[in-house]
Each structure stands twice: as structure tokens, then as C-alpha cells.
Amino acid sequence: MSTPVVNQAWKAMTRAEREQFDEDGFLLIPGALSADEVDYYQAAVDGVYQKASQSGGLAADGSLHLLSAAPNCPELATLLDHPAVFGYVWSMLGWNTHVYHSHIDVHPKLAERKPFWWQWHQDGGRQNREIETDPRPRMSVKLAFWLSDVSRPGRGNLTVVPGSHRTNWLVGPPSRGIEWPQPEGAVQITVNPGDVLFFDRRLWHARSDNYSDVTRKVVFVGYTYRWIAIRDEVADLSERPWWNSLTPVQRQLLGTVGDGTGDHFWGHFPDTTPLYGELAARGLLDPEHPPLIP
Q1: What is the reported pTM?
Q2: Helix, strand, or coil here: 207?
């Protein structure tokens, strides 16, 4: 799979970026993907969308929300450790990580107004009910790779409440179908093709409806610790023809590195964990940040 990804130097988050991320719960990385990369990944997503359309895999409104992004679209595998943004992931989570949840989203213009539905949520599912701390632990982070022009509100923008990752509960309606105002402080994120949004899974967010003539296209990739179960489909990846084209780090991120024992996933064997080796070779293991310590 030949891609236009440039072999850039890996960089850790700066202190200023870490402070902003801790304050707001997200960072916007403008122009992370080149124009050629946007064209390449957009074509791959368009192909998946066309296939879903032909097989009846689209929602009634013509949208696509497809889980397991790379397994369903191998061209997207190079996004998993893209050098322009991967440093944000391992700077926060360290080297014992994998992709637990990813999805391709395509949302064309809605033909008519949809009934109200309260979309606001934190990622993590049952983690938000079964972990009792306040605030909840970060647990995972997400990269959103934008492949279409969402530079104006009303194009299906991701809407967030800055700083809400430190809040366990958001005031909302008694049931999701009851009309309710937007949370106080909510903002629509405006992005250009090639921009990437890095956010804390606890950040309260919602997709807004798209009533514009621009089709919203974005790939979300969520990362967590390897001792947390993967939600994506990964069981037979090593048997697929494109598997041998992946790097050891990409294979780790897709959940297939290790001897199958819990100890490996728990990070007890750093020397046989590819991302640890890469960070060590590049001199990026920061002893001041616990997840980067062997």
C-alpha cells in the first residue's frame, strides 16, 4: 500500500501543548495531513462509502458510521501512527498502547430536519458507569482526521464543551428525545481538510447535524492501554494480504503483538513491545512521565 505519508521525525508534546490539553481537553493540529494525503485518504473513504451504498450498508439518511476503520479500509492503517500526530498519543499514554476503537464517518447533507436527539456523551461506554472516581480517569485519547471542509458551523461539526473532561455529569434532558438547549459553553469545532483534532475521551462532545452541501468525512482513531479490551474487529488480521505491509508498531496498535498472555498486554515485557523499542531508539523515553518509563 503506497501512501504519500512523509517520514517525519517523531516529536513529543511540548509543555505548552500538554498544559492546553489538560485545561481544554483537546488540541487542534492544523494542516497535519498534506493535500496529497487528504486526497489519498479521502479516496479510500469514498471507496468504502460506495461499497456500503451498493451493499445496503448506509443508514436511512445516507450516512455511514463504520467501526474498525483500518480492518475495513487498509489504506487507513498509516493513520494509526502518523508521524505528524502520533506523538500526542504516546506523550499522554506511553508505549503500552493499542487502538481499541476506530470508525469512519461520512455524513452527506440531510434532506430534512431530523427529530431532536440528545447526542452529548463521553467516550468509554461502561467505564463511565463502573469507575467511581471524580473526575473519571482519562483511560483513552482520540485522534479525528478531517478529510472534508468543515471550516464553517452547520456542516456536521463536532461540538464540544471545553474543559468538560473534568466533569462526570452533564445537565441534560430526562430522556434523549426531549428538546433541550445546548450545554453552556458548547462550541462547534471548525476545521479544514487535513486538520486533526486530538481529544481526551472524557471530553463531552456531540456530532451536529449537517444541513450544508458539503459531505462531512472524518476518521476517528481511539487509543488506550493494552490491558483494556479492544472493541474493533482484529481476530483475523494477520491472515489478510495487506498485513505484511504494516510496521511492527502498526501491528501493535492493531492488537496482535505479544504471546497472547495478559502479562505482555500489561507491559511487563517492554523490550518485545515495538513502540517501546521505537521510542527508546529515538531517545524519546521521558523518565519524568510515568507511562514512558520501562
Answers
A1: 0.96
A2: strand
